[in-house]
UniProtKB/TrEMBL annotation:
GO terms for molecular function: antioxidant activity; oxidoreductase activity. This is Redoxin domain-containing protein. InterPro entries: AhpC/TSA, Thioredoxin-like_sf, Thioredoxin_domain, Thioredoxin_ResA/DsbE_sf. Residues 37-178 form the Thioredoxin domain. It comes from Ottowia testudinis.
Length: 178
């Protein structure tokens, strides 16, 4: 009885492998399409108003990277009006406890409005303001949430658009540091 069960299980799995391959191809294709405008090579530098610093002070990507020498850093693009961003905010917070993550508040208001949103959500994120989405556009993003990993040499190592799991965030940062 056991012998006859195994061939049926093998046939069933072979039938599912084609479906699994097709689903994987669709997911990879969607990822490639969503990140098609993300620049390759050096990460575009920027300077933007910082929420965590006194009002009016700017923070640049170069300054952020210099504060975390020799390790990869992440940029997390989000918006206060984005429902998916809310879903992944706890993952971002947990990753930010172990890795340098600079968040970018896209089209979410001025410094005071973003500070209020962060406070209401109990988020202690280092954040810069992207009032009109120009910074996100420089990185090739037309939607949020988006995640970018920059390696220790300043090159974009990985990017994603849409919900990214905590494991996915951590793996991308780990891979950039290898």
């Amino acid at each position: 009885m056991r012998i006859s069960l195994m061939p049926r299980l093998r046939r069933a799995w072979r039938g599912h492998l084609g479906t699994l391959a097709m689903v994987l191809a669709v997911l990879l294709g969607a990822h490639a399409w969503q990140t098609r405008h993300v620049p390759r090579g050096p990460a575009p530098d920027f300077s933007a108003l910082a929420v965590s610093v006194e009002d009016g002070a700017a923070l640049s990507l170069a300054q952020w990277r210099a504060a975390h020498p020799g390790q990869p850093v992440a940029l997390h693009f989000w918006a206060d009006w984005c429902a998916i961003c809310k879903l992944e905010q706890h993952s971002v917070s947990r990753v930010a406890a172990d890795w340098p993550v600079l968040t970018v508040a896209m089209q979410s208001g001025d410094v005071a409005a973003v500070r209020r949103t962060l406070g209401q959500r109990s988020l202690n994120w280092p954040t810069v303001i992207d009032p009109d989405g120009a910074l996100a556009a420089r990185y090739g993003f037309r939607a949020v949430p988006a995640w970018v990993v920059i390696d220790s040499k300043g090159r974009i190592s990985a990017s994603s658009v849409g919900y990214t799991s905590e494991a996915g965030m951590r793996l991308r940062l780990w891979w950039a540091g290898v």
